[in-house]
From TrEMBL:
This is Fructose-2,6-bisphosphatase. It comes from Actinoalloteichus hymeniacidonis. One of its GO terms (molecular function) is phosphatase activity. One of its GO terms (cellular component) is cytoplasm. It comes from the Bacteria.
Amino acid sequence: MSTRTVVHLLRHGEVHNPDKILYGRLPGFRLSERGERQAELVAEFLADNDITHVVTSPLERARQTALPLLATHDLTPAIDDRLIESDNHFEGQRVSVGDGALRSPANWPKLRNPFRPSWGEPYLKIAHRMLGAVHRARAAAEGHEAVCVSHQLPVWTLRRFLQGDRLWHDPRQRQCGLASLTSLEFEAERLVRISYQEPAGPSGSQVPGA
């Protein structure tokens, strides 16, 4: 008989970001009070699950999101750099429609190829590193469940890759809310099911730097 293992991809909770910049990999960005509550709600939701391994992105907001879950299951966290937020040349700037970063001619060369994308880490590279992190977590939790705490774009890129969808996409259409779970079910090493849940409730997809 094959072994069933589930790897949950948990997006971190809301971050305190009053200036609404794209914070990306910048240090010092912590969960807001709402984000801390979202992390608690996820831990409550997964309290009865057979979770034996929790691994996070090295960024503070991801490690914070994991804390209630670690306490609930009495686990020690691991860190996998492959779960980190995607690299982005607009890091530290305001990039919403109408903001200065996108209006500046100096930045237009960074926007020349949305299919790669030209403004940051290539989608295919993101998908490959995330898949490597997932399979390491799957092996560590074989026969049980693992949680990987990561970020919106890496989680969504991996999901599209696994579904056979094109990797470039409209960010407004991402199904990856704050503190959401994208769950990958494996039979041995074979992916058999992808599911999605929002234990902390729905949230908009357009959260700068998420």
